[in-house]
Amino acid sequence: MREIKVGVLGLGVVGSGTLRILQENADDIAHRVGARLVVKKIAVQHLHKERAVMVDPALLTDNPQEVIDDPEIEILAELIGGVEPAHDYVLRAIERGKNIVTANKEMMAKAGHDLMEAAGDARRDFFFEGSVAGGIPIIGPLKESLAANKVREVMGIVNGTTNYILTKMSQEGAAFDDVLREAQAHGYAEADPSSDVDGWDAQYKIAILASIAFNSRVPVEEVSAQGIRAVTPRDIEVARELGYRIKLVAVAQQDPNGEAMQVRVHPAFLPVHHPLASVDGVFNAVLVRGDAVGDVMFYGRGAGSLPTGSAVVGDLIATARNILRGSTGRIGCTCFEKKRMQPIDSVETKFYARIHAADRPKVLASIAGVFGDFNVSIESVVQKAMNEDDAEIVWVTHRVREADLLGALDVISHLPAVRSVDNWMRVEE
Ligand code: HSE
Description:
35% of the residues lie in helices and 28% in strands. The protein has 14 helices and 18 strands. The chain has helices at residues 13-24, 26-33, 64-69, 86-95, 105-121, 139-143, 160-172, 176-185, 194-197, 200-213, 233-241, 305-325, 363-373, 402-413; strands spanning 3-9, 36-43, 60-61, 73-78, 99-102, 126-127, 151-157, 224-225, 244-254, 260-271, 283-290, 294-301, 340-341, 348-358, 378-385, 390-397, 400-401, 418-427. Helix 13 (363-373) runs antiparallel to helix 14. The longest helix is centred in the C-terminal third of the chain and has 21 residues, at 305-325. The radius of gyration is 24 Å and the shape is elongated. It binds L-homoserine. The site of L-homoserine (HSE) has 7 residues, from helix 7. L-homoserine is lined by residues 159-161, 196, 201, 302-303.
C-alpha cells in the first residue's frame, strides 16, 4: 500500500491526540484512504520530555526546519498554536509544496486569508477543522455539506472553559472568582485564563466561522469581544426567574441584503427553550441558520486531546485522499465578497438591565422616562424590595441599539434616587 508521509509541528495536547489516533486507528484509516498515513518527523521544543503518547524517539527533532524541508513529507500538521512562529513555518512549508493541516485558531483568525491564498496558488490543500470547536465538524460542513445555503446566522457556544464556569455558577450559585479558581485547580481552566474568560478565544473562532459562512474576510480586531468576568450569581438567578439562561455566545449575522455583518462575543440571556440554552459544562455547540436547510445544530467536545485530534486526523485523511486523486487545492479561501462590519454599538437586540434604586414614589417613572428619552422601549419591568428603603428593578427592553441603552444607563446612574446600575446584558431571542 502506498504511504503518505506526514510531518508534525508540536506534540502537546493536540499533537499527542493526533498521534494516538493515527496509531490506534491506523488500519481503518489506511483502508478508508487507500494509503497509509505515516508520521515521518515531529518537531518538538524539548526532545526528552515525558509524552502522553508513545513515540519513536528517532522521529523527534527540535529543529522545525527539518520537518519543513523534508521532501518526502507531503502533509504538514501545524499543532503549535499562536501566530508566530507557526505562521512563518506554514508559509515556508507551502513554498516547499506541502499540504497544510492546522488547529491554530489565532493564526487562522489573524492571517488565514493570506495563508489560504498561498496554498491555493500552490494548488495545495489547507484544512483547519480543529481550529474551531475542537472535535465538532463545523468548518467542513459549512464549506461543503451546507454550501447550497445562504447562511443568515451562526451562533455558538465555542468556549468550553467559560461554559463550564457559567454552568457551575448556575448550578451552585457560586461567584465567578471561586468557580474559576476551582476550574484552574482541576485543570479545566488555564493558569492565565484571560484568553477564555475575556472572550478572545471565542472571538477568533467566530471570526473564522463568519468568514466562511458569509464569504468575506472578517477583520478579527473588529469582532467585539466581551467576556464573563462581570457575570454575577444574581444575574444568573434573575435570568432564571425570567425564563433565561446566561451563556457566553459567539454570534455572526448578516443583514438581509448581505452587505453588512455583525460578529460579536458576549454573555447573553438565552430563553430556556433556545437550542443553545441547554448546552452545559465543557461542551460546545454551533447553530447554523441557512436559507434552504433551516436550523442545523452541531454539538460535542470543543477541546481536548482526542476530540481535537479527531478533527486534525479527519483533515489529514481528506488531504491524503486529494493527494491520491491529484486534486489538492480544490477548496481554497471562499472570501469572494467584501462585507462591511457593523460596529457593536449600533447592533440592536433586546437588553436586560438591573438597577438598584430608592424605593420611593416616582423613582420607577423617572428611570422609565430616561429610557424613553433615549428611544429605549421597555418590554417588561420587575421590581423587588431589597430592604425597607431600596428596590432592585430589572428591566428587559425591546430591540434597541447598544449605544442608546448605554446612553440611557449613564444618565440613569446619575439620577439622585439611583444607587447603582448593577449590570446589563444582551438578550437573544
Ligand atoms: N480554551 C478553549 C476552551 C479550548 O476553553 O474551549 C481551545 O480552543
